[in-house]
Amino acid sequence: MSASAYIAGFGIAVPGGGLTQTEMWDGFFAQHFAGDRMAERVFRGAGVRRRHAAVNPVVEDVSRWSTGERMRRYVAEALPLGKEAVAAALADAGLAPADVGLLAVVSCTGYVTPGLDIRVAADLGMGSDVQRLFVGHMGCYAAIPGLGAAADYVVARGRPAVVLCLELTSLHVQPGADDHGQIDRGQVVSHALFGDAAAAVVVLPNAAESRRVGGLEVVEIAALTDAATADHMTWDVTDLGFRMGLSPEVPRVLARHVSDMVSGLLGRHGLTTADVDGWAVHPGGPRILSTVAERLGLPNDALDASLGVLAERGNCSSATVLLVLDALRTIRRPRSRRATVAMAFGPGLTLYVALLRGTT
Question: Which of 35, 97, 251, 295 has its CA 20 to 30 A from that of 26?
Fold first, then answer.
């Protein structure tokens, strides 16, 4: 039986050629929000330069589509993206589809049965006995519990696992105003930030294979939920798709918890923030990142990977923290046995943190 699990391959897939924030505002959202100056300031200050959208709002307005219409489109758009990301991750890890023992799919932006787990596994040629897990409606932090479930499987079974996070937030554009003509600022913020992406990782029981591709050992995963603030971030199924509720108090709640939680996790392994080579912090927005950096006392460049993903991809919900981990490989791969911290947060209000360790 393996004693540890190791992230050993990454695969990324995004829809279309991408749109700049200016193109999205000028081409759709300026009219959608009736020229509201506050909405424009939010878009300009979101820290996003470019995003990808499976449903391009400049071409196609889905804000009045029913949930059923959006789910049918989800199937059509998600399957090829998911297959592309998983195939790339397997190739990066040097594995064949038939080697996979578990496929875990994470998504909060679409639902269908038979699900993406069945369809991706079958189309790529995974075995008929592959175990499958679907993690749904947990929101932006869901990649980390998904990774935890995959790591537990790898340790228990000694077989490789794949985690696919796939989010199509562009399917859930909401009406610009309510029946009384009032604009919901939370919707403005979410539409200014969110983008679409698929990100997959391979998790192995073999440390030697992980070293070959510059992998990361999964050391520990921790969670904290502040149930008293559950209404601060919501994701509701409505007749017009899924609607986000977002309170401006989220950064303050995060500020109360992040330092103690991270120092406690690191302390259990005899570490401090000075021992961390890489920070993969979910870029929920500029205020979120500045709050984390301030509370943890991080160097000025510690969150460059997170800021870069926010700028070029936007907030892609559960896929985002995997995008940041992949970006860290190119700008600052952790040294052998040095720590990386992956962190994400979402509805609950919930904070998930993964302690990872470089294998090369």
Answer: 251
**Cα 118 from Cα 120, distance rounded (Å):** 6
| Catalytic residue (choose from 108, 140, 165, 316) | 140
User: What pLDDT sits at residue 207?
Assistant: 64
List of the chain residues with pLDDT < 50? 1-2
Rg, Å, the chain Cα set = 19
Q: How far apart are CA 75 and CA 312, in angstroms?
A: 25
Sheet holding 350-358, edge to edge: 131-136, 102-107, 161-167, 197-204, 5-13, 216-225, 350-358, 339-346, 276-281
Range 214-358 has CATH code 3.40.47.10:
yes
Q: What are phi and psi of 294, to 5 degrees?
A: -70, -50
In the chain, where do the E strands start and end? 5-13, 19-20, 50-51, 102-107, 131-136, 161-167, 197-204, 216-225, 233-238, 241-246, 276-281, 339-346, 350-358
The kind and range of the H/E element at 81 are: helix 67-93
- CATH topology assigned to domain 5-210: Peroxisomal Thiolase; Chain A, domain 1 (3.40.47)
What tokens were used for 167? Answer: 């989010």
- The pLDDT score that the predictor gives to residue 111 is 95
140 a catalytic residue: yes
- Length of the chain equals 360
Q: Are 289 and 307 in contact (CB under 8 A)?
A: yes
If residue 321 lies in a helix (H) or strand (E), which one and from where to where? Answer: helix 320-331
Do 5-210 and 214-358 have matching folds?
yes
Dihedrals φ, ψ of 234, to 5°? -130, 160
Predicted TM-score of the model (pTM): 0.95
pLDDT of res. 1 = 40
